[in-house]
Design brief:
- Helix content is 78%, strand content 0%.
- The chain has helices at 14-23, 26-37, 40-60, 66-84, 87-95, 97-112, 118-123, 135-165, 168-202.
- It is mostly helical and 203 residues long.
């Protein structure tokens, strides 16, 4: 499901919200996969198209998501670099593209804490509007957003090592195993904290 169905009161089912936040990561995953097997141009364009398609439903509904808009902006930047930079610069960007992408994700997550934590924008899709300003709702989403921000930050050195060493084993361990473990851990924590949040709301 690439987008949640928005109801009149601004709520959707819990699974729709939960999957929605992971759908927003799809352009980043596509970028990582394609960068490894194709050109930076192809990776940037496909990721940009994916980011635009994912961001559009929420934008049309008048509920834009910072993570999705940030992806569009990031891949516009990657696309510009891919098509305008000289060969050596493009090669360097392609080599460290995953580290740059992780850095941009971390920046988006940390920046959202200054306004609305990015996880809160998805949580609002399944929590009644009158609870959006509750201390618990705010605290849980600040914790979740901060957790994801640190997860993205932890990926940066792993991707840098993979780019610097540039071997098949380093690529497997640092570009895939470590990031996947970090994301799986964060996803489990998100599910656990979200279930706890919904239990509190149901009381």
């Amino acid at each position: 499901m690439l987008s949640a169905t928005y109801k009149a009161d601004g709520a959707v089912d819990k699974d729709g919200r939960r999957f929605g936040i992971y759908v927003a990561f799809i352009p980043w995953v596509l970028f990582t996969l394609i960068t490894q097997h194709d050109t930076l141009k192809a990776a940037a364009v496909v990721a940009l198209l994916g980011a635009g398609a994912i961001a559009l439903p929420a934008l049309l509904a008048g509920r834009p998501k910072l993570l999705e808009l940030g992806a569009v902006a990031a891949f516009v930047g990657f696309t510009v670099v891919a098509f305008t930079a000289d060969a050596s610069t493009a090669a360097w960007v392609a080599r460290y593209a995953r580290a740059i992408a992780a850095g941009l994700l971390a920046l988006i997550a940390f920046a959202s804490l200054l306004f609305t934590p990015f996880t809160e924008q998805y949580a609002r899709d399944s929590v009644p509007r009158h609870l959006w300003s509750s201390p618990r709702f705010t605290a849980v989403n600040r914790q979740l957003t901060l957790m994801w921000a640190f997860v993205f930050t932890a990926m940066i050195p792993a991707h840098i090592i993979a780019g610097a060493v540039d071997t098949r084993r380093a690529n497997t361990i640092f570009n895939w195993v470590i990031p996947i473990v970090l994301v799986m851990w964060a996803a489990k924590r998100t599910a656990a904290m979200s279930d706890g949040e919904h239990a509190e709301v149901a009381r």
